[in-house]
Structures are given as C-alpha cells and as structure tokens.
Amino acid sequence: MLLSRLAEHQERLDEMETRLLDAKDGVDQRLVVANNSLRKLAMEYRGQHNDVVDQVTALQELVAELGALQGMQDAVLSGLKEDVARMTVQINQLQAAQSRPVRRSVQPASSVPTIKPVAPSFDVTGIELRGGRLFVAVASQGAQALNQVRLLEEGESFAGWRVSRVGDRSAEFISDSGVVELAVQ
C-alpha cells in the first residue's frame, strides 16, 4: 500500500511538473509578447517625445521672432507718434499764422514793369524721339547746312539758353533774360 501511494504521489508530481512546465512556457510566451509590446511602446514614446521636443523648440523660436517683431513694431509706432506730434504742432502753427491778417503793400499795376525775355538767336527745327527720349533740334538763325543743326535734350544748353522741357511740337528754354517756349518751324 505504501508503494501504491508513493506511485500515486509520483504520478501527481509528474502531472504537476508537466502543468508547471506548460504554465512556465505560457508565462514565458506572455513575457516575450509583453517585452515586445514594451519595446514597441518605448520606441513610439521616443518618437513622440522627439516630436514634442521639436515642436517646443519651434514654438520657442516663434516666440523669439514675435518678440523681435513686437520690438520693431513698437519702435515704428513710437516714431509715428513723434511724427504726428511734430506735424500737429506744425499744423497749429500754420493755422495760427493763417488766422493773422497779412499786410501787403500793393503797387499799382502801372508801376510794375513787365520784362519781356530777349528772343533766342536760334530756331527749333524739329523734335526727335531717340531711345525713348525726346530731343529738340536747333539751328542758328540763317543756318544753311545740316551740320549746323544740333540735337539737345533737357538740361543741355545752346547759345546761352538751357532746355527745360521738350514737348511733342515745342520746347521750353531758360536763360538769364527769362523763359521762352519755341514751336517747331
């Protein structure tokens, strides 16, 4: 009887050992799965953490840029306020000056001499457009040859007269004696 009981216990022990080994294999498999899940979660966390760090860095850069822009805006606004204050003072001064009566001594029209400019000693023979710029062709009065014609543009002078404006059919000249507009002849 003792032997049969011992055999029974041995059988139970073998059964329990088999169950323990099966349970251990199941636990090992679950541990592998859990370990793989933890690794995957850790990698995802690192990726998300890096993304968050990048976003925080980008936000900090934006905040710095906004601060610089705010400083520039404040400086411009301050300058504009100073300009407005200065212009307000000038406007007030102008309005005050305009409200005061102005005393002018007016001379009779007969006493003011009218000065007629001396006529230039040349004629306008034409207007030319070259390279998108207007030129006036002038020649001394009585000129007979083409080589006596000269092309002038605004700012150039001929016979003491400076070209101040060139139009389509005339040109304006200025000298010490006045302003004259000559038409093409």
What attributes does this structure have?
rod-shaped, 1 helix, 3-stranded antiparallel beta sheet, 185 residues, alpha+beta
- End-to-end Cα distance: 154 Å
* Alpha-beta content class: alpha+beta
Main sheet specs? 4 strands, antiparallel
Seen as an oligomer or otherwise, the chain set is single chain
pLDDT < 50 stretches: none
Taking all Cα atoms into account, the compactness measure Rg is 52 Å
N to C succession of SSEs: HEEEEEEE
Give the proportion of residues in helices: 40-55%
Shape: rod-shaped
The number of strands is 7
* Count of separate DSSP helical elements: 1
Largest beta sheet: strand ordering:
4-5-6-7
Can you characterise this structure?
- The chain has 185 residues and is of the alpha+beta class.
- The protein is built from one helix and seven strands.
- The protein has one helix spanning 2-99; strands at 122-130, 133-140, 149-152, 157-158, 161-166, 170-175, 178-183.
- A four-stranded antiparallel β-sheet has the order 4-5-6-7, with no helix packed on it.
- A hairpin with a 2-residue loop joins β1 (122-130) and β2 (133-140).
- The longest helix has 98 residues, at 2-99.
- The protein is rod-shaped and about 160 Å long.
- The termini are far apart.
- The relative contact order is 0.06.
- The mean pLDDT is 87.
